[in-house]
Amino acid sequence: MTGTGAKRGRPPAFDRAAVLDAATRLFWERGYEATSICDLTRAMGIKPGSLYAAFGDKKALFKEAVQAYGSSPVGAFMAAALDEERTARGAMARILREAAAAYPDPAHPAGCLTISAAVNVTEADDEIAAYLRDLRNANLGHFTARFTEAQRAGELSKDAEPAALAAYFAAVIQGMSQRARDGATADELRATAALALAAWPT
User: Topology of domain 16-69, per CATH?
Assistant: First the structure.
């Protein structure tokens, strides 16, 4: 016994990052429920046994795919804007602008993975629906926190409602994702973004 706890056996004969990217794109395009293990192994170029050995089951693979998406440029732009912009309004303007560019980008499936991947999940996979719902609600919480901070700093008036404002912009962003999946262009989404930002309290 070595006592290291390391797994024995040969390392996987594939590029883990590459096959995870293939799985992510497939989940993003089709959603969780409509993506089968057969679809995944075909897209990833591996056998079912290799998928289970490397990632566990379909749910575990999906969660890892979502995590990978969240650290990619198209998945991380909201957090970056909230962290980097000096004002809450500037952060939201950047988020809307970047969503308008990213969601219809033909370089990847349309829309946002965390918004669209669970729209067709059945009761048997409620865990996945709850997982994505929690991620979306976490973003809503980040918006609310940033807007509350802006109110304390005087950027928003005392009459403003940070939680309601956050819910409004979250709804707009989710709608932009769906519109992109329905074929909306970047120009259309930029117009939507401009109209949404006009609702910012003055």
Answer: Arc Repressor Mutant, subunit A (1.10.10)
Residue type, 142: H
- CA distances, 127 to each of 33, 39, 41, 59, 62 (Å): 12, 21, 22, 9, 11
Residues, the chain = 202
- The architecture CATH gives domain 73-197: Orthogonal Bundle (1.10)
Tokens representing residue 103 in the block: 């969601």
- Return d(Cα 118, Cα 121) in angstroms, integer: 5
The pLDDT of residue 121: 74
What pLDDT, in 10s, does the model give residues 93-121?
A: 999 999 999 999 999 999 999 998 877 77
Domain extent listing, the chain = 16-69, 73-197
Are 31 and 120 contacting, i.e. CB atoms less than 8 angstroms apart? yes
Distance CA 67, CA 62 (A): 9
- Of 53, 45, 48, 105, nearest to 74 by C-alpha is 105
pLDDT (tens digit per residue) in 147-183: 999 999 999 999 999 999 999 999 999 999 999 999 9
